[in-house]
Write a structure and sequence with these properties.
It is a single chain. The chain folds into two domains: about 1-30; about 35-140, Immunoglobulin-like, CATH 2.60.40. The protein is elongated and about 80 Å long. With about 150 residues, it is α+β, with helices and mostly antiparallel strands. The relative contact order is 0.20. The chain has a five-stranded antiparallel β-sheet, with no helix packed on it. It is about 20% helix and about 40% strand.
Length: about 150
């Protein structure tokens, strides 16, 4: 091998290593976004993909805990849906240490519009690098007792 080919090989290896480090860094940033759903009335904390049976048919509020690396999520991009319907109009976003708490309360002081049996909560947000992140939770509530 001559000096030019060795130099070219070294540049190729360094370039590949730099590309790998940039890609790994971007993936690490995405992995730092943590989404949990809290149901304070039932003392429950759900992780993405969790399914839970609630002991009651009505709850007044839930809290979506978004814990990104500081500055990693644009709070205006956070979308929360219950059974396909947006809950954003009933959501208050509070900045907390290390992220956001999105408090979602039933409209006008009523309980959340949960239906008997399975309810799906979907969360979609965009980070500052324009990557979409999603999480879903399934909440099963008992049918209301007939009076």
């Amino acid at each position: 091998m001559n000096i030019r080919s060795e130099r070219g090989l070294a540049q190729a290896v360094i370039g590949t290593l730099c590309l790998f480090l940039l890609t790994a860094g971007a993936l690490a940033i995405e992995a730092q976004i943590d989404l949990k759903l809290s149901i304070p009335e039932c003392k429950l904390l759900l992780y993405a993909g969790d399914r839970v049976d609630l002991p009651q048919s009505e709850i007044s509020h839930i809290i979506l805990q978004v814990r990104p690396k500081v500055g990693a999520v644009r709070y205006g991009s956070i979308r929360v849906m219950l059974n396909g319907e947006s809950l954003n109009r009933d959501m208050t976003v509070n900045g907390v240490d290390g992220g956001y708490d999105c408090v979602i309360e039933g409209a006008k002081g009523s309980s959340l519009p949960l239906r008997p049996h399975d309810n799906s909560i979907q969360v979609i947000l965009t980070d500052t690098w324009n990557h979409a992140h999603e999480a879903s939770y399934t909440i099963t509530v008992p049918a209301k007792a007939s009076s």
